[in-house]
Amino acid sequence: MSKTEICPVHKKCGGCRYQGVPYEEQLKIKEKMVGKLMGKYCKIYPIAGMEDPKHYRNKVHAVFDRDRKGNIISGVYKEGTHQVIPVESCMIEDVLADEIIGTIRKLAKSFKIKTYDEDTGYGLLRHVLVKRAFATGQVMVVIVTASPVFPSRNNFVKALLKEYPQITTIIHNINDKRTSMVLGEREKVIYGKGYIEDMLCGKKFRISAKSFYQVNPVQTEILYKKAIDAAGFTGKEYVIDAYCGIGTIGIVASDHVDTVVGVELNRDAVRDAIGNAKANNIKNIRFVCEDAGRFMVRLADAARRDSSVRLPDVVLMDPPRSGSDEAFLSSLVKMSPKTVVYVSCNPVTLERDVKWLEEKGYKAEGVWPVDMFPFTEHVETVVLLSHKKPDGHINVKVEFGEGEGKVPLDNIAKRAESYKPKERVTYKMIKEYIEAKYGFKVHTAYIAEVKRDLGLPMYDAPNAVEELKQPKKHPTAEKVEAIKDALKHYKII
Ligand SMILES: C[S@@+](CC[C@H](N)C(=O)[O-])C[C@H]1O[C@@H](n2cnc3c(N)ncnc32)[C@H](O)[C@@H]1O
User: Does ligand 1 have an atom closer than 6 angstroms to the CB of 291?
Assistant: First the structure.
């Protein structure tokens, strides 16, 4: 890229720190930055860059305002302020998205729509968000207003669709709070299905207005492939996909493992994730809508109390920029999955969390930087961590038998028995016990229900969000007794 192609607003916008820096050089700078933070732990592999590093962003947000002359403008906030810098086109944003936003500016003028004034709280139009699915061509437009009353809304939508028939859904979002958050709680689908669908790594994904979706789909495929390759799946693993968003990594990984549980805080994203698993006909994945740290604490706790709770073999984690938290990491360490694959968009919090895990028995084995955000200073990174084997051993001489300083043999047998790991009791074992003893079969959901009624942990049962959608049947009294008998037999109660 030549130095003459510098964006006129880059200094005020502050997004593209590497304006005018040749792309190859940008990659070197990012690789060096990751090396500086992570090089002390393990090998840093060469950064994966883009062939064409422009117009990669599939999500474009514009804030609306008026300039001093009263003209409607849209763009970005000046770095560190709430002053709007007009942007007509941007070298990293999707071209169609920028054009649609430009047309909304024009329509707002002809429909005499007032832009929202943050200082006075007057006016209607606050933001426009455009999301585009590069693989399918579907386009979502979210119009954010300060009030639910949007005069001539239908005609406005008609005029927009006339210019851009490729728009597949339009959402009216209402944000009446004095906040820097773009989207408000309330939204109404005013055209189309209310979501768009994209393809990633051969799987279909539905994306809602409020769900997180990686902004650079070309590099996301590379990122997910690196994460899945790093995990080295054999097909038998129980995997937790923590901070899973709309389930993308877990769904892509599901073909290579036994079971995946995705954990995510945002309800809309979990709803998308459940729909995505169904749309791709994936049966070995389920989703939990919960704080990831809380989920891990509950799972570690349940595993301590009930040996039938299955522990993860691999944890894939992709937290927000702030990184993970101690609740999550300390429970992870308690469950000691043999592999952790950490995907991060912030090398600083990544280093902090990896340091913590290294101190608690994990070893970083490899770091793969991926350039998801060309021209900006941001970089995405995949780190593989493995559980450390014991460092060495010490020799202790022990004499067995009777008498002082000797260890009686029957004591050893007793202690060995008490240290023997408890057999992991699975739903399959409970079913087989019941079928052999009582001659009838019981459904997993019935075992789950009895366990729940007895206050036992439910981690192997279908996830709560999905369960709500199923019509509920209950086991007969005879089956309840048989299940309780099996639980007693296996010393769970
Ligand atoms: C960087 S995104 C990754 C999403 C997904 N893995 C992907 O590749 O699209 C982080 C996700 O973590 C979710 N999140 C943030 N804080 C969380 C928390 N405390 N517990 C669970 N999920 C959280 C966000 O809603 C977001 O979907």
Answer: yes
Q: What burial class does residue 358 get, using C-beta atoms within 10 Å of its C-beta: 0-12 exposed, 13-18 middle, 19+ buried? A: middle
The tens digit of pLDDT for each residue in 13-41 reads 889 999 999 999 999 999 999 999 999 99
The band of 469, judged by pLDDT with boundaries at 50, 70 and 90, is very low
- Domain assignment present for 41: no
pLDDT above 80: residue 375: yes
User: Angle 93-96-99 (CA atoms, 0-180°, nearest 5)?
Assistant: 95
The owner of tokens 């549980």 is 261
Is residue 102 a contact partner of residue 60, using CB atoms and an 8 Å limit? no
| Helix axes of 477-489 and 427-438: crossing angle, nearest 10 degrees | 120
pLDDT one-digit tens code per residue, 281-334: 999 999 999 999 999 999 999 998 888 899 999 999 999 999 999 999 999 999
411 within domain boundaries? no
Same domain, 184 and 282: no
- Which atom of ligand 1 is the closest one to the Cα of 291? 20
Whether 175 and 222 share a structural domain: no
Could you list the residue range(s) of the whole structural domain that residue 78 is in?
A: 57-196
Residue 178: the pLDDT is 87
Q: Clarify whether residues 355 and 448 are in a common domain.
A: no
User: Residue 301, by phi and psi: left (phi above 0), alpha (psi -120 to 50) or beta?
Assistant: alpha
243 belongs to an annotated ligand binding site = yes
345 is catalytic: yes
**Atom 1 of ligand 1, residue of closest alpha carbon:** 320
Q: For residue 250, give the CATH number of its domain.
A: 3.40.50.150
Tell me, using a 6 A CB cutoff, whether residue 320 lines ligand 1.
Answer: yes
Report ipTM (2 d.p.).
0.99
Q: Can you give the C-alpha Rg of the chain in angstroms?
A: 27
Residue 280 within a domain: yes
For residue 212 and ligand 1, the question of a CB distance below 6 A is answered with yes
Distance of alpha carbon 241 from alpha carbon 341, whole angstroms = 10
Number of structural domains in the chain: 3
Compute how many other C-beta atoms are within 10 angstroms of the C-beta atom of residue 431: 18
| One domain, residues 225 and 161 | no
Question: The tokens of 251 are what?
Answer: 């769904």
Please check whether residues 240 and 279 belong to one and the same domain.
yes
How far apart, in whole angstroms, are the C-alpha atoms of residue 306 and residue 487?
11
Q: Is 455 exposed, middle or buried (0-12, 13-18, 19+ CB in 10 A)?
A: exposed
CATH no. for residue 116? 2.40.50.1070
121 in any annotated domain: yes
- Residue by residue, DSSP assigns 391-440 as --------EESSSTTEEPHHHHHHHHHHHSPPPPPPHHHHHHHHHHHHS-
> 173 with 264, same domain?
no
